[in-house]
Structures are given as C-alpha cells and as structure tokens.
Design brief:
With 724 residues, the protein is α/β, with parallel strands linked by helices. It has five domains: 144 residues, HPT domain (Four Helix Bundle (Hemerythrin (Met), subunit A)), CATH 1.20.120; 91 residues; 182 residues, Heat Shock Protein 90, CATH 3.30.565.10; 142 residues, CheA-289, Domain 4 (OB fold (Dihydrolipoamide Acetyltransferase, E2P)); 118 residues, Response regulator (Rossmann fold, 3-Layer(aba) Sandwich). The chain has a six-stranded mixed sheet. Strands 11-15-16-14-13-12 form a six-stranded mixed sheet. Strands 21-20-22-23-24 form a five-stranded parallel sheet, sandwiched between helices. Helix 1 packs antiparallel against helix 2, helix 1 packs antiparallel against helix 4 and helix 4 packs antiparallel against helix 5. The protein is flat, with a radius of gyration of 34 Å.
Length: 724
C-alpha cells in the first residue's frame, strides 16, 4: 500500500467516525423537534441540524462519498427552509427526515468496503421526498399539531448541541481498553501490600511464641540483642509496608477512577437510538408511542453499554409488538390513543445502576403462560392450581416461550427474553419482570457500572478456594444440621417460611469435598426471589474487592466458572458463575444422605394434611411420613372434609387461608358432624394475630401453630400429645 493509499484509508476511517456522530446528533435533534417546544428551542435545534448537515456535506465531498453529499445537500436546503419559515412542520416532514437518516446510515455502513452500494431507487426516493418538501410544503407555518411519537426528556439529557462544544480528541477504543486493563493490573499490587502486611504480622507472632516456648534462646546477651534487633526490623518493615500500601493504594484508586471516567459514556448513547427505533417500529405497526426518558445523563462503562443495547432493543420490540395496543383498541378501553414507554435509569449503591422499562399496554397474558408452563412441565391439574405468578413470569424468560398470537419480524419467536436474561447475567446483572392485566408491563434490570472490579466472598471447598460475587448472594446462613429435611429424596431447608432446595457446592462443581465437621452448615442462599437455592460450603472466609480476569479464546465458556482473580499472595482463584450454578443445581442431589436427621419411629397412625400450597403440603407430608405416620392430602377445606368422611384419619393438620372452604370453616364443620367430631385438628397458618387464634379455638381447633414460629419438633410433639 502506497503512502497516499494509507492516508486515504485513515481519512475514510476518520470520516466514518465524524459522520456517525453527525447522524446521531441529527437523529436526537429531530426526535426532540417533534415535541411541543418553545420557539426559541426549535430555532436552536434547526440551526444545529443545519450546521450538522452542512459539515457532513463538506466531509463527504472530501472523501468522494457523492451520494452522502447529495442527501446532505438536500437536508441542508430543507433545514434552511425551516430557518426561514418557508417550510412548515408536519408528520410527513419528519417521516422523510428519518428515511433520509436511515439511508445515510446504510451508506455509511458500506463506505470503503467491498459491499454493494445502497439501492439507487431508495436514494432517489429520499432525494425526491426532500425536494418535494421544498416545492410543495412551502408557505406560512400553521399551528403545529401534536406529533404521535415524541421523546419526553429534559433537553440537557439528550442535547447534541452541547456535546459539540467540548474540546475533544479521538482515540481508538482499543487503545482505551488496553489502558484500562493496565490500570486494572495495578490492583494486584495493592492486594500484595495487604498480603505482605499480614505476613509480617504472622512472623512477629511466631517470634513472640518462640520467645515464650524457648527461654533458652535468651540465655546470652548476644542472643537477646539479636532477637531485639529482629523484632525492631520486623516492626520497621511492617510500618513501611503499611505506609507504602496506603500511599500506593490511594494512587492506584485515583488512577483507576480517572481511567473509569475516560471509559464511561452517558446512557443517552444507547437511549438516543432507542428513541428512534421506537419511532420507526411504532409507525410500521400503525401505533402511536410516547417515549419518556429519565436519567440518560448517567454514565456507565462503555463496554457494558455496548453489550446492553441488544437486550434493551428486545424489550422495546416486545413493548411495541405485544404490549402497546393500537389506537382503536386503546380508545375502547378508555386509554389515551398513544401508548407510553418509560425508561428510567438510576444509580444504586455498590456501583450498580437500575434500568426500569415500562409500558402502559395490555400486560403479559398470564393464562397463556400458565397453559404453556403446564404443558412443558407436564403438571397435573392439582399441581397447576398453585403455580405462582412469579414462577410464570420467570418462565417467560425461557427460550421458545412467547404469548404472541403469531410470529412477526418484531417478536413472537420466544427468543427475545431468553437472550435478554442471558446477556444481562453475563454482565453480572439481573432482570425481573412484573405485569398487571391491561395496565402494563415493567422490566427491572440491575447491572454494574463498571466491569473493572467487584466485591466477592471467598469460600473454601475442601482444599480449594473460590470467589462468589457478593451481588448474587441473597443471604449467608449458619444453620444446624438437624434443620435439614428431605422432600422427594432432596435435602431442603426452611428460609423465611419458604422451602428451599439445599445442594452441596462441591458436588455441583464435581470436586472432592471433605466431611462437614461440627453441628452446623454454612450456606449461601442465591437465585431469583421465587427460585432460591441454598448452597452448602465448607467455610466462608471473607469478602474482598477483586478483579475479574476473563479466560482467553481457548476457554471462552467454562461451565460454572466466569473467570479468575489473583489474590495478594499471588494465588489464582476461580470466580464462580452463579447463573450456571443455579442451572447445575437443579439436577444435583445436593447434601448427602449422611446428614439427614434420624427421627424416632412412631406407630402407624393416619393423618390428613389439608393445605392449598403444594410446597407446604409436600413439606408437611414428608415430615409426618418420616416420623412414621400414614399421610393423605387435600387441597382445601371442602376436599379435606369430604375425604375425612370417606376415610376418617386419626388427626387433621390444616392451613387456615384456603379457597372454597378455609381451615376454620372446615374445623367447625368437623365439630358439628358426630361421625368425625372427635378427630383432633391442628391448624398451621401464617395468621398470627390474637383474633385469628381466638377464631381457631372457637371453631374447635386442638392446636394452633404459627408458621413464622414453625418448628417440626413442635409439630411432632403436639401430634404425639394428641394421638400418642
């Protein structure tokens, strides 16, 4: 390649960057112009857009991009007409503008490549449309009607005019990334100071122990002097390490913070495109969309922002295609003709941000999800009754799940939400979904501000150590081994009145683990709110700030492991991938049978368990069967009473709050029926008020156990007292 060819290549690369910025600024200006604005602001935006088109025209001429030059010349003429008020505002004007910008983007994507050029007919259509605006849309400007698609955001948030005022230089993203990685490497130096300080402290302690245990060492003046000198040297070394560690740590933190600022860009970088996509897609669907944006000025790591764009786009498409109804349907429901999509970005504690994307559309069709869930999970009608809405909404994130009536180019294939969750979890974030019928849907996304460092809990499994991201841990627990119970051959624990599966983390990872010592388990509770799992570990060591190092190309995807970090001692420790662990745990038997509590044998007596929650019903059934009782079940008071009449039991254990017939009404019915009136009834419920207890006793309950204070030992003791 000759020197001139090399120069032209660099010139074209510079042009593409400048042109992309110009098109982005023009897009943001046009979207804002579609709002009802003060005349002064409209004039400012038109002037800025005129200058952008003029600058882009000149730059394209310099690199011989004649098609871009022609379109920019036509845009410049229209903006000039708006400045002189010889062109009036209307929706068709903005349609042509956006069509022109879409075409410019297509051309720019092919500039300097071997790809075929943009369809000339499309270019001619754009040029003719802009020309007709000048010819046919001239005249005095009437009152501007409200545009159907606008972006409600403070001008300061998306204001390309202001961005152009700053002094800037262009540096390739590769160079910035390399600089960032080098700054991150210094974190190891900071950690090494902490390790050295601990090492000196340990040596000093050993020296003191040696003096105490070996008095003969101080038998001579020379030995005493030597020991004193060594102690002084150790103390000087300790102080020096502390001083240097503090000074270096402060400088490293400052440097890393500054580099993070360089790597951070405002969220508007993504949201500008989000707004234009909403406009274009809604027009294609024949819908009217109002987009409201808040927090677009919050800055985030550029690498994360690049990755979050696709998930946000999937959510946008779902809102437009599945969520927002067409104007006719909305009018019949008493809603405004235009739908509203709201995007709110907020900073949270621990260097995380929250993105809320909501719409006021039809909401997720829960019943359709329920049918798909039942079909895929092969559930019985009895099991299907107790499926929670949270479980169904979590199910919506699985691949292949969609409630759309048909497959469209926007959505309906059931892939979008699966991709959303996968990508966000890869970034170390979480996403949840909530909905109200005919009121709308909300996606809540939480992701880190930076990919540099994170807080992690260091754990011990056998002879190995691992790092578990703190943000993924719901709670760290220390529970007695005797509290572990088995349901369907799976160990479980009770956490906040819920039954959680318990797995041994070493078993999930497929590594040897030592026999758990003592009377307690150390457990990390993790997972989405409705699917929490307890992971048993040998020891929870401490929490520290660590730097994640990704694997190279040969190890891009290692099951259960997301990367590694280097401790201050130089030891390399794997960082666990919580999303993988949760999936792996589903097929793992977890804590070994050796840890089960032995329950004394009871003579075979029968108990009827009446409980509408399948989880609670299974737990009670397992507890009682393990204790030696024969157990039958019913899903509500009506079924419970009928079964008791058909086959009387020795005792009834029942919930209170149930459909059709609650536990108190069932108890009253039992007491009024002479054939079963003598059967003891134990009410186990979450209703803890004094009035609730009195209602239970008045109905004739033999015992009343509150779930918040539930202990299976108490239940078995009560049953033992009642039926021996």
């Amino acid at each position: 390649m000759t020197g001139r060819e090399e120069f032209l290549k660099k010139l074209l690369a510079t042009f593409r960057i400048e042109a992309a910025e110009g098109i982005t600024n023009l897009t943001a200006n046009l979207i804002e112009l579609e709002k009802e604005l003060p005349e002064e602001r409209k004039t400012e935006l038109v002037e800025a857009s005129f200058r952008e088109a003029h600058s882009l025209k000149g730059a394209s001429r310099a690199v011989n991009e004649t098609t871009i030059e022609k379109i920019c010349q036509a845009l410049e003429s229209v903006f000039s007409g708006l400045k002189q008020k010889s062109v009036r505002y209307d929706s068709s004007l903005f349609d042509v503008f956006h069509q022109a910008l879409n075409t410019l983007n297509d051309i720019l994507g092919r500039a300097g490549s071997n790809q075929d050029g943009v369809d000339s007919a499309k270019v001619d259509q754009v040029l003719n449309g802009l020309s007709q605006i000048i010819q046919l849309n001239s005249g005095p400007a009437p009152e501007k009607s409200a545009a159907p698609v606008t972006v409600q955001a403070p001008a300061a948030e998306i204001n390309p005019v202001q961005h152009r005022q700053q002094d800037t230089i262009r540096i390739s993203s590769e160079k910035l990334t390399d600089l960032f990685f080098q700054a991150e490497e210094l974190l190891e130096l900071r950690q090494s100071f902490s390790y050295l300080k601990d090492s000196v402290k340990s040596l000093t302690a050993k020296m003191q122990l040696l003096k105490q245990e070996s008095p003969g060492l101080q038998s001579s003046e020379w030995t005493v002097s030597l020991i004193k000198s060594m102690e002084d040297d150790l103390e000087k070394l300790r102080k020096s390490i502390v001083r240097q560690g503090y000074s270096s740590g402060l400088k490293i933190e400052t440097l890393l913070d500054e580099v993070k600022k360089i790597m951070s860009v405002p969220f508007s970088t993504v949201l500008d495109g989000f707004s234009k996509a909403a406009r274009d897609l809604s027009r294609d669907q024949g819908k009217e969309i109002l987009v409201e944006i808040r927090g677009a000025d919050i800055e985030i790591d550029r690498r994360i922002l690049e990755e979050i764009g696709k998930p946000l786009n999937h959510i946008l498409r779902n809102s437009i295609d599945h969520g927002i109804e067409n104007p006719q349907v909305r009018a019949k429901m008493g809603k405004p003709a235009h739908g509203t999509i709201r995007v709110a970005v907020d900073r949270l504690e621990n260097n995380r941000i929250e993105i809320l994307i909501s719409d006021d559309g039809a909401g997720v069709d829960i019943e359709k999800l329920r049918k798909k869930f039942i079909g895929q999970e092969n559930l019985s009608p009895e099991q299907a009754v107790n499926i929670s809405e949270a479980t169904l909404l979590d199910f919506a994130f699985k691949s292949g799940i969609s409630t759309g009536e048909m497959i469209t180019d926007l959505s309906g294939r059931g892939l979008g939400l699966a991709i959303v969750r996968e990508k966000i979890e890869q970034l170390g974030g979480v996403v949840t979904l909530s909905t109200l019928k005919n009121k709308g849907t909300e996606f809540r996304i939480r992701i880190p501000l930076s990919m540099a460092t994170f807080r992690g809990v260091r754990i011990q499994l056998g002879e190995r150590q691992f790092i578990m991201p703190t943000a993924k841990i719901e709670r760290a627990l220390r529970i007695e081994k005797s509290a572990v119970r088995t349901i369907e051959s799976k160990p479980t624990i009770v956490y906040r009145e819920e039954i959680l599966p318990l797995v041994y983390l070493a078993d999930v990872l497929g590594i040897p683990n030592k026999e758990s010592e003592g009377d307690y388990f150390q457990i990390l509770v993790m997972g989405p709110p409705d699917k929490l799992i307890g992971f048993c570990v040998d020891e929870i060591l401490d929490e520290e700030v660590v730097q994640l190092k990704k694997f190279n190309a040969q190890l891009q995807r290692v099951k259960n492991i997301s990367g590694a970090t280097v401790l201050g001692s130089g030891k390399v420790v794997p960082v666990l991938n919580v999303s993988d662990l949760l999936l792996s745990a589903l097929s793992n038997s977890g804590v070994s049978d050796r840890n089960r509590t032995n329950v004394s044998e009871h003579k075979q007596k029968s108990i009827l368990v009446v409980e509408d929650s399948i989880t609670s019903r299974m737990l009670l059934k397992n507890i009682l069967e393990t204790a030696g009782y024969s157990v039958a079940t019913a899903i509500d008071g009506m079924e419970g009473y009928a079964r008791l009449k058909e086959n009387p039991a020795d005792l009834v254990v029942s919930d209170v709050d149930m459909p059709r017939m609650n536990g108190i009404d069932m108890t009253s019915k039992i007491r009024s029926d002479k054939s079963v009136a003598a059967i003891p009834v134990v009410l186990v419920t979450s209703l803890s008020r004094r009035e609730d207890r009195e209602r239970g006793m008045e109905a004739g309950a033999s015992a009343y156990i509150v779930k918040s204070n539930f202990d299976q030992g108490n239940l078995l003791e009560v049953i033992e007292r009642l039926i021996g």
